[in-house]
Amino acid sequence: MDIVKKNVVSIVFGVIALVAMVLAFFPMGGKFDEINKELDQRAKYYQQAEAIVKKPRTLPDIDLVSTAEPKPLKYFPSPKITSLAKNFMDQLISQSRGVLETAVQMNQRESVVGPKNSLLLTPGSLPEPQPNTDNSFKKMLQPEMDELRLKVLEAGFPPTVEEIKKVDDKVLLDNQAKRVIGADGQAINEAAVQEAYQKESALLPAKMRAEVANKCRIYVDAEVLAAPKEITAVPQSPSPSQIWYAQATLWLQEDVCRAISEVNKSSRNVQESPIKRLVAFTIPAGSAMYVRSAAGAEGAAGGETAPANSVRGGGGVTAGDAGAPSNGEPVRVFTVSPTGRASNIMYDVIGFTLVLHIDQTKVPAILKQLSKDRFITVRNVDLNRLDLTAQMDQGFVYGSAPIAEITIDCEAIQMREWTAPLMPRVIKDALIGPGVEFVSQLKLADKPAQ
After folding, report:
1. Half-sphere exposure in the Cβ direction for 436 (13 Å, CA)
2. Residue 217: is it exposed, middle or buried by C-beta count within 10 angstroms (0-12/13-18/19+)?
3. Ranges of each domain in the chain
4. pTM as predicted
5. Residue 164 to residues 159, 205, 208, 219, 222: CA-CA distances in angstroms?
6. Measured at the alpha carbon of residue 316, what is the angle toward residues 311 and 320, in degrees to the nearest 5?
7. Residue 222 — φ and ψ, nearest 5°?
8. Which whole-number Å values give the CA distances from 13 to 4, 22, 80, in the listed order?
9. Spatial CA neighbour of 438 closest among 344, 351, 370, 341
10. Cα(78)–Cα(75) distance, integer angstroms
11. Do residues 210 and 397 touch, judged by C-beta distance below 8 A?
């Protein structure tokens, strides 16, 4: 007992050690495993967090064709920096939307027609004609062309041989009325009458041509700006597709004629005008007016190069080949056009050609005016010097300035944001895709982020 008392402390610690040894073999291995797994998991989380922190980051590269090494990002994208970046992106999106809205407004403004400056020549004629609007469109089309030629361009044209002959006959009658009949029934002043007539008749063509040249600012043949005969020369009402193509053509004709008028606005007559004559204004008929890739929307959206049989304003294509519908992102396709532009989800491209007689020193003026505040691009210009004497013999009074004939190959853009809602279904199928509905980019921008 004394031994126990003397060694009580040692015995207590021994018992504790024994209990600990026993507990070590007690069934608690599952708890230790759980603790070890949790430690391993936390180690993995630490390694992942450390990898995120140490991961190299670069600044966004906004130059799509740059080959330079990306610049390193010096700061970790903390919540504050992320918020700043989001605000910047929101501002960039807002600015992009503003640019698109402005572009659409400009494009609409340059395409207005008629005395009320509306988009449609006949309200209700597109996308599907309301009752009798198809006939109203047909009726109004040629008068609008005449208005464009006579009022917008203030155009005239040299008198024809028939017109000169008609006036000459009147001059003859006026002189014959001055005869003085003698006792024998013959005119005693016949020689004087004939001499006066011959003198006036010889000067008549030049006089009539000068009168036209002094009254107009430019020469334009009526056939240069004429309504399509497949609409006006048949008894049937025009179809929705015929109305569409005529209206889309008219949008472009109005815009180009206004550009020519702006160049000539300070002149009093054709002799002072920089642009003397609109010889030709050619827009391919129907679907051939559009510059489209034969690869279609899928090829364009994927950035593929269009095949060699792509369509350029209807030129050089096989019969019936008018290009494929296109609803892809804008992609440069240089097999289609010198600019690489083809119709896409944002706009349709129309090819056209102008032939002008112009003061050779004023050629830059029309090239500039076609592009100023307009979605028109000049793709090519051919220039040939003209003989003024030969032009005078044909009745064109141009003045003394050196005159050149220029052929201007152009393309114009019509934004789908405003044209697509006016397209008949058959036109949407041809331009956008069978059964495909146009999705407004501006309306998409209005939707909140998901």
Report:
1. 18
2. buried
3. 131-154+219-446, 160-215
4. 0.74
5. 6, 6, 8, 17, 18
6. 70
7. -60, -30
8. 13, 14, 59
9. 344
10. 8
11. yes
CB atoms within 10 A of CB 377: 17
Alpha-carbon gap, residue 104 to 100, rounded angstroms: 6
Name the amino acid, one letter, at 276.
Answer: K
- The pLDDT profile of the chain, 450 residues, written as one tens digit per residue, is 666 556 655 666 666 666 555 555 555 556 667 777 887 888 888 788 777 777 777 776 666 566 777 778 766 666 766 666 666 566 655 666 778 899 999 999 999 998 889 999 999 999 999 999 999 999 999 999 999 999 999 999 999 999 999 999 999 999 999 999 988 888 899 999 999 999 999 999 999 999 999 999 999 999 999 999 999 999 999 999 999 999 999 999 999 999 999 999 999 999 999 999 999 999 999 999 999 987 543 333 333 333 333 333 333 333 334 578 988 889 888 888 899 999 999 999 999 999 999 999 999 999 999 999 999 999 999 999 999 999 999 999 999 999 999 999 999 999 999 999 999 999 999 999 999 999 998 876 554 443
Residues constituting the chain: 450
- Give the integer Cα–Cα distance in Å for 237 and 230: 10
Q: In angstroms, how far is CA 59 from the centroid of its own chain?
A: 34
